Amino acid sequence: MELVNVAKTEKGGEAPARAVLVRPWLWVAALTVFAACLRAIGIAKGLWWDEIYFLMITVRHPLANIVTTFPADTQHPLYSILARLSVVAFGEHAWSLRLPALLFGVASIPVLYLLASSVASRIEALLATALLTVSYHHVWFSQNARGYTALAFWTLLSTYLLLRGIETGRRGFYLAYGAAVALGIYTHLTMMFLVAAHLLICACLAVDAARKGAEKWRFPLQGFLLGGALTLLFYAPILSQVRNFFLHRPSPMRAVSTPRWALWETVRGLVLGLGSQGVLLLAGVVVLAGAWTYFKQNRTVFAMFALPGAMTAMGAVLSRGTMYPRFYFFLIGFAVLILIRGVFVIPNWIGAPRLAAVLACALMAASAYSLIRNYRYPKQDYEGAIQFVDALKKDGEVVVTAGATTYPMSHYFAKPWESVETAGRLEEICRRGRPVWLVYTFPRYLEAAVPGSLEVIKKEFTVVRVFPGTVGDGDVFVAKSGRIL
């Protein structure tokens, strides 16, 4: 199965590109600079739970400790190294902790164009790049001190290198692919699901070539072997710790972070990123059309885009039994390409090719508009809750935390607030006769960690202030017991 620039066969594919894009890389450079600006706005806002935990248990430790310790699956080794170097170089700030995420997010812009221009027309490639530039979710994760934008970068780069290797048959592309996937796996173990999908695709292509009397398996195999060898080398200091973690430490969130919850949380996040349910419904139809066109025109490219998601879903359920929407963020480049393809083919199907520009602009405008929320609120507003309580709390009044607020408040903000671990303990504190302030977040996780706590809160407390955040279900609640004047 040979690779072709599938979009060029679409009506109006290359002609608009030649008419509009004389020097497309100048446009890509401009979009890259614009992307950097969008991702720099608000990057210094307060950290959320995952970032705080990551900072405390990993980044504040020496580099030698970081590369030889795997404390939990919050450890994204390559990102941890880069974050440590950034904090050492620039001091401990929210922006310096997030700087590697921003850089990988910005670097993904030209790499997406590189991949897109190899499987689509230049105008499609440029519009996909523009959409990723203003993507709410891509901006959000580019300001999140975790390895997800790095994972998306390595996904785009490795997919491009593998496709080029298949197209040209040159060993260099496969060896570069091996290095890219090793760095991707060292960023986050989820990358292994992408590699598994790639291995399956290459195996099918090799079998097909063998039936025709050709041998096209040696160079791909060398690429996969190099990737495996480098991965083992990178993980050698922590390999036994990683194995023990995934084999002997079941996730406490297994009953909460279910596939069904992840599906609905994904829908909620997409509505937030696209602006409305109507736009999401429209985008869904467009994605189906784009996916169908890729499937018809080039099964290899379609498999590269679709199979990693299926592999990730299966791997997540079988390994830890939990699922989060962020597991699929690394596929955002593929989603954008499929979406833009649909934007082009649907107008051609109905005989209105000029409608493509309208649809593309509408999608980009909706995504760009949703950025207002990202800039308006922090991911979690712990600082706002602290200032509010400190300003209103009177002498003799007690402040307690429960669930996910306990770790940040006690370890990062060093607040001398009492933590409660059972609903009975919370009721006991309320019976002391003094007003009690309660700060909590993530109600679903709170109920899982402290069963019965939400019922006590409903009975004994009144929520006096909610501090919104952009993390799903991550608003910080401040409640007070007794009568509220």
Tally of contiguous helical segments: 23
**What is the subunit arrangement here?**
single chain
Roughly what percent helix?
55-70%
Q: Helices and strands: which structural class?
A: mainly alpha
Unreliable sequence segments: 1-20
Q: Rg, please?
A: 24 Å
> How many distinct domains?
2
Question: What is the number of beta strands?
Answer: 5
Topology as H/E string? HHHHHHHHHHHHHHHHHHHEHEHEHHEE
Report mean pLDDT, rounded to a whole number. Answer: 87
How far is the first residue's CA from the last residue's CA? 73 Å
Shape: globular
What is the beta-strand fraction? 5-15%
Read across the widest sheet, the strand sequence of neighbours is 2-1-3-5-4
Biggest sheet, open or closed, and with what strands and sense? 5 strands, mixed
Written overview of the protein:
With 485 residues, the chain is mostly helical. The protein has two domains: 6-376, no CATH class; 382-481, 3-Layer(aba) Sandwich (D-Maltodextrin-Binding Protein, domain 2), CATH 3.40.190. 67% of the residues lie in helices and 6% in strands. The protein contains 23 helices and five strands. The protein has helices at 14-20, 24-40, 49-59, 63-66, 77-90, 94-119, 122-133, 136-142, 148-168, 171-187, 191-211, 218-235, 239-248, 259-274, 277-297, 299-319, 332-349, 355-376, 382-392, 406-412, 423-430, 443-449, 453-460; strands spanning 398-402, 418-420, 436-441, 461-467, 476-481. Strands 2-1-3-5-4 form a five-stranded mixed sheet. A hairpin with an 8-residue loop joins strand 4 (461-467) and strand 5. Helix 2 (24-40) packs parallel to helix 7. It is globular. Residues 1-20 have low confidence and may be disordered.
